[in-house]
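This part of the workshop introduces the protein records we will be handling. An example says more than a description, so a record of this kind follows:
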Amino acid sequence: MRRSILLCALVLAAVTACGRKSAPAVQTLPPDQAAEILINRNWLDRWPTGERERLHVYRFTPSMGGGVYQDRTLFAGQFELFTYQLEGDHLTIQWPNSREEDRMVFRVQRVTGPEPFDLRLELSTPSRGPRTYYGRTAETGGAAADPLWSLAHP
């Protein structure tokens, strides 16, 4: 009887372990690849589910001399332009309006979600917005690729 209970417990544990989903695969990119993926892409802290939901967006656009940070909803918000430098895994952002500077470690990872994202940007100590942002590998620029534009114009 004892042996049967032990056997049942072992089988139940094995079945439960097999049925569990494994943690999603995460691949941290080396700094040179992370620097390439960082630019010309919208980095959102969340995928908006409604037009009044607040979100934060970074976009690094070297061809325009820097980037833009947005604290916004789908249709309205505030923005702040910045310049930046990359050195290995360090990102330095200069905020001309306030004359502040952020120096932080950044990391880009390939992830599986949350949907529709497959990239994650981690900033160690940003002075604006949260530390975690998400992007999409498929984004190549322009309004047609802008996830916010797509959501606002189904």
Notes: Residues 27-152 form one domain. Residues 2-19 form the longest helix (18 residues).
